[in-house]
Amino acid sequence: MPKITDIFFDCDNTLVLSEELAFEACADLANEILEKRGFSDRYTGEQLIQDFVGQNFRGMMISLQAKYKFELSKEELEYYVKEEENQVIAKLNAKAKPCVGANEELQKLYDSKKYGLAVVSSSALRRVQASIKKVGQDKYFNPNHVFSAASSLSKPTSKPDPAIYLHALEVFNRKPEQVVAVEDSKSGTLSALRAGMPVIAYVGCYNGDEKKDEIAKRLTDLGAKTVMRDWSEFQKCLAEIEA
User: Fold this and answer.
1) Which helix (H) or strand (E) holds 205?
2) Bridge partners of 235?
3) Three-class SS of residue 97?
4) How does the average pLDDT of the chain come out, rounded?
5) Which one, of 238, 5, 9, lies nearest residue 116 by Cα?
6) Angle, nearest 10°, between helix axes 209-222 and 186-194?
7) Whole-model pTM?
8) CA distance linking residue 13 with residue 113, whole number of Å
9) Which residues are in coiled coils (predicted)?
């Protein structure tokens, strides 16, 4: 096993508790779209999370069109993608908090200078930057090492497509087995695994032990190497992978 040289972190609900805030904004826009198309169904943020967790807004809108069998024009889709980004950023700037214990572990990693650090997210780059800045994590990452599947690639995509992880590996000039990914969702875990990287599954963002157990099982069944229930366990999880 080659030495681990770098750590790539997902952002939403791994570093920053942003998923719930973002899904509130997504639900508002999804409902607006459904209403315009004459559908009576409405989403809450909570229901959207259950249906589409780990997907970015563009991915969600593609799934929504497939589910309800309608089509958004390219212009409409781009309008809503931009609008969602603006609304989410406003909510993040007002209310985002770091995942419990994440800042302390990032500080330790940053001080140790042992590993390269990057953020690898499905979300739009402006949103990721707003999230990490709001909670004081931007100082731990070189701005060129914050990657977005929606913004950093020539063709926008979303996890579970491994493209964004492959792009980050290329920028870092690393083999996948040299890098550990930290992920909280099925789509994120699949994205990293498809890129050939070992994964630490973080379940600390989920409410209740039962839910944590369920997600832990789901992500380890997919192939995650180890489970982190709290950020205080990060060093232990990393040591397990390095061993």
Assistant:
1) none
2) none
3) strand
4) 95
5) 5
6) 20
7) 0.87
8) 25
9) none
